[in-house]
């Protein structure tokens, strides 16, 4: 018992130090003033497969952008078997800014690569078919991109669309991931981003050798970030201005949520970025400590008290700032339950990753 307590304290101390650093980085990024730099022409790439239930919303929000320069949308169909292509064909017939491509290869990363090759402009944004984009999204992203001289600009995605406990849980859980990514960038050590909301320099990416890591099914966003980081991490920037925050829907079922998290977790075994590996290791070790302390409750409440109180305190500190930016701090009342659920699913993801869980995009 004493050994377990000592290990738990050591792990939680490492986790606490990590979150405090991320919190400082997030606060730094959140205080940045909005840019008023002139914008440049942008190509928006939208890979999709079987998205007939949501793709019209995404396309409508992209076509409705209030943008002071030229932009095009390149929607790349990764072998859809539903009505997605026909829906977009109807829109494209009346909208010259929308171009449709049928992918030759297979997978999201291939669709991105083919869309990139077909793009007309030197600045490229990436969008997702299951997201809705604010009308000033492209204007704000492009202005920040130009102002900071970026090779890669990343921005937040938040969960919406569900008001039950499960939807609220996903909102807080996703906010913690997004906040950590922004915080790490604020510390000068970017580790992750979201492929639904990013912008990059076309020439720089096309000159890279395998920027999306094609050998791994998922993780186009984080592997691109790692590739740019190796080239020049000073050219990676994050913005969390309200007009750059993109909204996506929560997973409707727990099975769908776990498949998503297994896919995300599966790519970590292919990481070569030291910062990402260290953070993933600390988070996984902390989750294991939480689960272990719960199993020891029949014998002692000390381990679970030490671990949960410490972790909940520091996580709440971080999430108060993140959820303020996302406009929903009232959900933080569920933190104690959230901590337990997160620990359980994180351990499940770690086990699934070790035993080769499914990493496919669709």
What would you note in describing this structure?
This protein is α/β, with parallel strands linked by helices. The chain has a domain at 34-175 and 190-251: Spore Coat Polysaccharide Biosynthesis Protein SpsA, Chain A, CATH 3.90.550.10. The chain has helices at 2-30, 55-63, 84-92, 108-118, 137-147, 165-186, 202-206, 220-232, 254-266, 274-295, 302-326, 335-354, and strands at 42-48, 71-77, 98-102, 123-126, 131-132, 152-154, 157-160, 198-201, 236-238, 246-249. The strands form two sheets. It has a seven-stranded mixed sheet with strand order 3-2-1-4-8-6-9, sandwiched between helices. The protein has a three-stranded mixed sheet with strand order 5-10-7. α1 (2-30) crosses α6 (165-186), α1 runs parallel beside α11 (302-326) and α9 (254-266) packs across α12. It is globular. It starts with a helix and ends in an 8-residue tail after the last helix.
What is shown here, in short?
With 362 residues, the protein is of the alpha/beta class. The chain is built from twelve helices and ten strands.
